[in-house]
Amino acid sequence: MSDLLIMTPGPTEVSEEVRRAMSQKITNPDLDPDFFDFYLDVSSKLQQVIKTKNDVIIMSGEGILGLESACASLIEPGDKVLVLDNGIFGRGFADFADLYGAEVTKWEFPYNKEIDTNELAEKLAAENDFKFATFVHCETPTGIINNIGEITKLLNEHNILSVVDSVSAIGGVPIEVDEWGIDIILGGSQKCLSVPPGLTFMSVSDAAWDAVNNRETPVRGYYTNLQLWQNWYEEKYFPYTQAISDIYALNAALDKWLEDKEIFVRHNKIAEAVRKAITESNLNLFAENGHSDTVTAIEIPDSINYQELNQLMTESHNVMIAASLGEFEDKLIRIGHMGENCYEEKLYRTLKAFDHSLRELGFNLNVELHKVFINKMD
Ligand SMILES: *Cc1c(COP(=O)(O)O)cnc(C)c1O
Question: N6-(pyridoxal phosphate)lysine occurs at which residues (predicted)?
């Protein structure tokens, strides 16, 4: 299993530089003044990735902590929250909002397409008295990417704050937080930045800070309370001890990311070549439009059992890809081509393993997936 290639849409492969960074000698992050400057420096690197001057907070915990913290800190019982739902994570936001006592309005859009912004504009013209709206940038279970800039533009026209889950897109596709007026955008360490799971990060606009601070009732949570992150640098105080080794890893990954001037071009080129391999074949992509450049979801042919396919791929071909979640669990398989996974040789090996496994299970592919892929790359 040691050379198993992890091509799942997170956690992604972790580079040697990042693994080495995790093993560096630690200091006491609550007491060492240098750590506060180091943390500030890492946040400023994240600001460069998402193009913002807004505060960036890095929290110790998986991506879900970020999602829950935004809801816990913004919502007071009875607040009206709009949940835009075109996928499993989008729908999941409603549960968090509900948990913290919001009055949730959920607008559902088809799960195999990006959110239709014309339809959204019409709905918002008719109803818009929401404190904030949530949506997902990249729906990882289905490989759909939503147009953040157009959605936040509409929300901003109606003075609705935006909370965007970009856990599986930050670092893989261009994001302009300030230009697009995004209030809170959430990321995770283990997706496109290719750091082990353990950190979540977010940028918070002035308007979002105002909403978090001007509450009549206390935030129902401590670990999830963003108010405690207001003046950490000035006061040299963190609400809890920071996961210093994880932050060393994030720092190393960000240095690598910032040096890599081809990162978005590579994500786009590889994603297009993966999609081309599928569309040229007798397999089907799940998404009708809004194909993400970070993950591709492919329909599993009726004659194929996912468990058998997965077992063959991991045990005979040393490549791990992922099933989907929820209602798509045994219907879709997903290849993550984000971060450290996003290299031509890794996708070639993955598609070859996928191609051979399908044939071994008796599915008659009409093209060789890895060859279509590599032709498109050349
Ligand atoms: C990975 C991911 C998260 C974090 O959730 P886990 O399932 O715990 O990894 C949140 N949102 C999106 C869109 C993700 O892809």
Answer: 191
Per CATH, domain 5-10+261-377 is 3.90.1150.10:
yes
Structure tokens given for 144: 């759909």
Q: Residue ranges for the binding site?
A: 334
- Ligand 1, pocket residues at CB < 6 Å: 10, 62-64, 89, 136, 140, 165, 167-168, 188, 191
Predicted model pTM: 0.98
Atom index in ligand 1 nearest the CA of residue 141 equals 15
Least Cα distance to 128 among 160, 104, 102, 156 occurs for 160
Token code pair at residue 94: 């409603």
Instruction: Please give the C-alpha separations between residue 29 and each of 7, 242, 247, 305, in angstroms, as whole numbers.
Output: 33, 6, 11, 49
> Residue type at 236?
K
Eight-state DSSP code of residue 190: T
pLDDT digits (tens, 9 = 90+) for 150-192: 999 999 999 999 999 999 999 999 999 999 999 999 999 999 9
Give ranges for CATH 3.40.640.10 in the chain: 16-258
Q: Which residues of the chain have pLDDT under 50?
A: 1
| Terminal-residue alpha carbon distance, the chain | 31
Kindly report, as residue ranges, where domains of CATH 3.90.1150.10 are found in the chain: 5-10+261-377
User: Mean pLDDT score of the chain, rounded to an integer?
Assistant: 97
CA distances for 156 relative to 80, 128, 179, 285, angstroms? 16, 11, 12, 33
CB 66 within 8 A of CB 188: yes
Specify binding-site residues for substrate.
334
Q: Which residues contact 307 (CB under 8 A, 6 or more apart)?
A: none
DSSP 350: H
Q: How many residues does the chain have?
A: 378
* 308 phi/psi in degrees, rounded to 5: -65, -40
